[in-house]
Amino acid sequence: MGAEDNNKERKDIKELKELKRKSRIGGGSERIERQHKQGKMTARERIEAILDPGSFVELDAFLTHQCHNFGMERNRIPGDGVVTGHGTMDGRQVYIFAQDFTVLAGSVGKMHAMKICKVIDLAVKNGCPIVGIYDSGGARIQEGMDALAGYSEIVFRNSLASGVVPQISMVMGPCAATAVFSPGLMDFNFMVRGTSQMFMVGPDVIKLVQNVETDYDELGGASVHAIKSGCAHFVAKDDADCVRRLKRLMSFLPQNNLESPPLAQPKDSPDRVDDSLNDAVPLDPIKPLDMVAVIKKVVDDGDFLEVQEEHARNIIVGFARLDGAPVGIVANHPSVLAGTLDNASSTKAARFVRFCDAFNIPVITLVDVPGYLPSVEEEAGGIVRNASKLMYSYCEATVPKVTLIMRKAIGPAYCVMASKHIRSDITLAWPGAEIAVMSPEAAIDIVYKKELIMADEPQAKREELAAEYRRLHANPFVAAEKGYVDDVIEPKETRIKLIHALRTLERKREARPARKHGNMPL
Predict the structure, then answer these.
(1) Is there a contact between 356 and 397 (Cβ–Cβ < 8 Å)?
(2) How far apart are CA 358 and CA 171, in angstroms?
(3) Structure confidence at residue 4 as a pLDDT band (50, 70, 90)
(4) Mean pLDDT of 503-514
(5) Cα 399 from chain centroid?
(6) Nearest Cα to 249, choosing from 337, 294, 174, 186?
(7) Coil, strand or helix: which one is 215?
């Protein structure tokens, strides 16, 4: 009897091992080889590269679809085309799912979706980030409405998790139609050049409806979403590079909305000054300020992770550290469109500020903005609405907000770039900053119109009046007299002053009126 029990036990274990083997090999060696030839890792290889060695705990490895139509009953592979579970990344717990293109082209059916929903639910319950890897042929047509229901269940979870735990999507293959809603709702999207695509409607349908020839990469490749749409926050050269970039981003983010972002032991002294910053503003007012160089001179070890680097380049957003503490940085980019704000830059910055606010990351705003881009197209494109998004985001944010006006802060753009009036906690300025309702050169044409007409030497008079207007209205000391600027600082001390400001705001608490939610002008 005992021998029979042992034999039975060995049979059960053998069956268990066989099922796990089938789950691990997915669609088999030929399809795995095909994935590799396309320059792509498999789902499991991606998870292994992301997580700490040996930390992955798989969930639902035996789950399979329940479809019995179109011969699907003969095509049942354990796992149903998605690998799900949890593990650690640099010692911190994360939940993860990776679609497996080798199994039914990673298509989404009811059970496939159920697996993804489970890990998102667990991530929210346990206060851990969720990483989703998308590589799928789309909805599983054989399952009909069940596939659409599954997608909708995933998206509902994404909406509930938004602002609760960081959600990171890695589009590392095709992602089309209903599938794009999930990465579209996540906080950051990674794509890979040459192998990633996101689109709502495919090339064949566009050809049919519009008679326009296009291909997958031209329609929804990484470059399109990095430069034009802004849907891709980071673009990698291959899967390994994508994983490396993910880990760098995650190092700045907290586990959830109730925790502070992770501190790092700084190598850079908090008391470091940089004399070169005193000459950072060019003497020629037409010459642009090198904002990226300034940022790198101020933050810890020159380490700045720019987000959406190729999109709406007239504004810069990204993560850095000051004395070891993560901060979000928003900065005008005078080298692009003279640093003016437009539709795309307003939306880009607004979403970034809202993310930082949701996850307790202080926001540093570096200002050199001459105004909004004058353009008929921009007005028709909704600049009123999109500029209001950025204004709303800063007004809504309750994290520490420190603003530094470096050169120009003119007109409505001054107001929206985290001014004191929309509740910047500490506002600093460099001594040469211009803060005014409009530039002195434009203002004198209105204020001193008669004097200019009557002047014997109009150009000399213009320079004299512009200097007078600048002395009376367009300099940081006037703003400081009114309490709109808290301190005018020597540029070389920028790092010291920003770190000190953040230290004073470490325990900041700020309430807002009770409400279900605001109505942001989307």
Answers:
(1) yes
(2) 24
(3) low
(4) 94
(5) 17
(6) 186
(7) coil
